[in-house]
Design goal:
Elements: H1 14-28, E1 59-64, E2 70-72, E3 75-77, H2 83-92, E4 107-111, H3 112-132, H4 136-159, E5 163-167, E6 172-178, H5 183-209, H6 213-223, H7 226-238, E7 243-249
Parallel strand pairs: 1-6, 6-7
Antiparallel strand pairs: 1-2, 2-3, 4-5
Length: 250
């Protein structure tokens, strides 16, 4: 009886099938996202002069230890959901009228005359630097100062009235956690701060323009309208998000 040969299996297309299956699983697979707070990391700044001491009234210190115990401005806080209330209080307490007896940041009032005087002063300084052939970096720095005062000029016009309130330039929110602090608590602190700043800006934009903060942000992201950019600049001047994250302690 003749030996029967077993036909070979054509495996030429197996590589294509495997590749298609790989693509299918890559496209359809979902991955859990870590809870996180996104922020641009500030660039390293080299200074030649020692930093100026900051008054305690200008610091909103939020600390969390290795046992996940929370302290806000020196007071133990059992409920992290109340952090946003402390942030709102930090910004609003002296916004309408300064009170030197409390422990909150003071506000300055910038008038249109002050803005115009600074714009003229910087224009003269730029002309002088250009005539002297100063380095480009110095001239660019002066132009950046000019841009800031121009933002304040537009912001005052949008805000209405004779003066634009500005919180003390040293005022900041300082977050300090330890290595053993749970990430969930750290993320909660960040979320509460973000919610508080959103609430402050949203209330102000409703009062001035009669629309939501998110509406303006979304519209500007889509259309890049200059009028919306000016509104966003105003809100950033009124309620700046100055947040410092201190290196975790052991």
């Amino acid at each position: 009886m003749a030996k029967r040969e077993i036909p070979e299996i054509n495996a030429g297309s197996m590589a294509d099938i495997a590749f298609l299956l790989l693509i299918f699983f890559l496209v359809t697979t979902t991955m859990d996202k870590d809870q996180a707070y996104l922020r641009n990391i500030p660039k390293k700044i080299v200074t030649v002069t020692p930093p100026v001491d900051i008054e305690q009234r200008n610091i909103l210190a939020i600390k969390a230890n290795s046992q996940n115990q929370l302290m806000v401005r020196g007071e133990i806080m059992s409920d992290p959901n109340k952090i946003s209330e402390k942030v709102v209080e930090f910004y609003r307490t002296n916004q309408k009228r300064n009170d030197v007896t409390n422990n909150f940041p003071m506000y300055s009032r910038v008038s249109s005359n002050v803005i115009q005087d600074n714009i003229r002063r910087i224009e003269i300084e730029i002309e002088s630097l250009e005539a002297e052939g100063a380095v480009a970096e110095m001239i660019e720095f002066k132009y950046s100062q000019m841009d800031e005062w121009d933002k304040k000029k537009k912001s005052l016009k949008l805000y209405g009235g004779n003066e634009l309130p500005e919180i003390q330039f040293q005022a900041n929110i300082r977050i300090e956690v330890q290595d053993a602090t749970e990430y969930g608590l750290f993320a909660k602190i960040q979320t509460e701060i973000e919610e508080a700043i959103y609430e402050l800006r949203n209330d102000e934009v409703k009062r001035i323009f009669g629309e939501d903060y998110q509406t303006i942000k979304t519209r500007y992201a889509q259309d890049q309208v200059n009028a919306d950019k000016d509104k966003l600049n105003l809100l950033e001047i009124l309620y700046p998000a100055r947040i410092i994250e201190v290196t975790p302690k052991k």
